Amino acid sequence: MTITSFGPANLITRTPETHPLTWRLRDDGEPVWLDEYVAKDGYAAARKAFAQQTPDEIVQSVKDSGLKGRGGAGFPTGVKWGLMPKDESLDIRYLLCNADEMEPNTWKDRMLMEQLPHLLVEGMLISARALKAYRGYIFLRGEYVTAAKHLNRAVAEAKAAGLLGKNILGTGFDFELFVHTGAGRYICGEETALINSLEGRRANPRSKPPFPAAVGVWGKPTCVNNVETLCNVPAIVNNGNDWYKSLAREGSEDHGTKLMGFSGKVKNPGIWELPFGLPARELFEDYAGGMRDGFKLKCWQPGGAGTGFLLPEHLDCAFYAGGVAKVGTRMGTGLAMAVDDKVNMVSLLRNMEEFFAQESCGFCTPCRDGLPWSVKMLRALENGQGQPGDIETLLGLVNFLGPGKTFCAHAPGAVEPLGSAIKYFRPEFEAGIAPAARATAGLVPGKAPTIVGA
């Protein structure tokens, strides 16, 4: 994976003023350990927060900055922090870092944890101070073995330096931090499923309310934030809200920078720290280098497998949550995938829905039964054995499993790419209907059949 900068690849040097997340990265890709991190102004924000700001002032600063969650949902971080109880008698509070990162085509958090583990530790330390949390957990995807090794070393270094543990920086504040590797479930990206797994329970989402801020880990107030979200906190404390807002392109409703990327048959796949609001075409052409020779862009997903497909003309959208919403989908994690002209969309969707069906927790019927049903029909279409009405049934599932109709957001995310693929590439799905069935039903290519009783 590669890390470049604001301009065309490798032309502009990363600086603290323009690249708060990545300016400390080493050119050789090796981790930045404590001594080097401190030499690069590491933990200066923590010292400033502890010496000059009250917990409530830190919360207000993050709220005023406009920082939003970077895991995909985009909920305002300061607002989420403000939901934690004010009652000082509730002295047992938890801060959880969601580092599960099971979203296909997404690896941004992995880069931060493997190469800048102390940035996450510092972000959690400041956040814990703001939330008055005495203990934190980094809930890490089990397959991220290198990240676990580097985070555990960073935690040990910070503790030895008096930056974790008891009486941090002589303030009387105590904070213990632990790395917890999960068993590998996509559903743990949902914060209450993550909490259940951390407690040793089955990773099922919980009914809300109560929300984790009131009843979280072991029944205590809990705040859950994504890796990249927490890594933004030190720079906001150090440089202020106006600076943070100024990083985004004009017109963007999201503030700051974002780790963005492109995978697929592009010339230069990788991750870059870029300002919100740049045209997606700039990300695709200037950073990812466009498609490799011999391939054409057929469609693309803006932020992981749970986001809808877009066409090449949609690359002109502004790449932030609101800009992507205007062309019909979500920004998600911000790591896009290019689909080339040699890919069959039915096969691609069958592969995706198999993943989502396997990763369903099985709690609610629409998700538990609907996703395997979609796989069965997609497999038939892929093999040229589909039946008239299969496409309409798939579209019905897209509706029945949509937002607000299942217990959590797993199923809506699973069917969003399916609905968009049928919308833009319906002939490829129609081609999978068995010839005999097509003739019997009198199907005309490109025209939906009439369903009796519909």
Automatic annotation (TrEMBL):
<dbReference type="GO" id="GO:0048038">
    <property type="term" value="F:quinone binding"/>
</dbReference>
<comment type="similarity">
    <text>Belongs to the complex I 51 kDa subunit family.</text>
</comment>
<keyword id="KW-0411">Iron-sulfur</keyword>
<keyword id="KW-0479">Metal-binding</keyword>
<dbReference type="GO" id="GO:0010181">
    <property type="term" value="F:FMN binding"/>
</dbReference>
<dbReference type="Pfam" id="PF01512">
    <property type="entry name" value="Complex1_51K"/>
</dbReference>
<keyword id="KW-0874">Quinone</keyword>
<dbReference type="InterPro" id="IPR019575">
    <property type="entry name" value="Nuop51_4Fe4S-bd"/>
</dbReference>
<comment type="function">
    <text>NDH-1 shuttles electrons from NADH, via FMN and iron-sulfur (Fe-S) centers, to quinones in the respiratory chain.</text>
</comment>
<dbReference type="InterPro" id="IPR011537">
    <property type="entry name" value="NADH-UbQ_OxRdtase_suF"/>
</dbReference>
<dbReference type="GO" id="GO:0008137">
    <property type="term" value="F:NADH dehydrogenase (ubiquinone) activity"/>
</dbReference>
<dbReference type="InterPro" id="IPR011538">
    <property type="entry name" value="Nuo51_FMN-bd"/>
</dbReference>
<comment type="subunit">
    <text>Composed of 13 different subunits. Subunits NuoCD, E, F, and G constitute the peripheral sector of the complex.</text>
</comment>
<keyword id="KW-0520">NAD</keyword>
<keyword id="KW-0408">Iron</keyword>
<dbReference type="InterPro" id="IPR037207">
    <property type="entry name" value="Nuop51_4Fe4S-bd_sf"/>
</dbReference>
<dbReference type="InterPro" id="IPR037225">
    <property type="entry name" value="Nuo51_FMN-bd_sf"/>
</dbReference>
<feature type="domain" description="NADH-ubiquinone oxidoreductase 51kDa subunit iron-sulphur binding">
    <location>
        <begin position="346"/>
        <end position="391"/>
    </location>
</feature>
<keyword id="KW-1278">Translocase</keyword>
<dbReference type="Pfam" id="PF10589">
    <property type="entry name" value="NADH_4Fe-4S"/>
</dbReference>
<keyword id="KW-0288">FMN</keyword>
<dbReference type="GO" id="GO:0046872">
    <property type="term" value="F:metal ion binding"/>
</dbReference>
<dbReference type="InterPro" id="IPR001949">
    <property type="entry name" value="NADH-UbQ_OxRdtase_51kDa_CS"/>
</dbReference>
<protein>
    <recommendedName>
        <fullName>NADH-quinone oxidoreductase subunit F</fullName>
        <ecNumber>7.1.1.-</ecNumber>
    </recommendedName>
</protein>
<keyword id="KW-0004">4Fe-4S</keyword>
<dbReference type="GO" id="GO:0051539">
    <property type="term" value="F:4 iron, 4 sulfur cluster binding"/>
</dbReference>
<keyword id="KW-0285">Flavoprotein</keyword>
<dbReference type="GO" id="GO:0051287">
    <property type="term" value="F:NAD binding"/>
</dbReference>
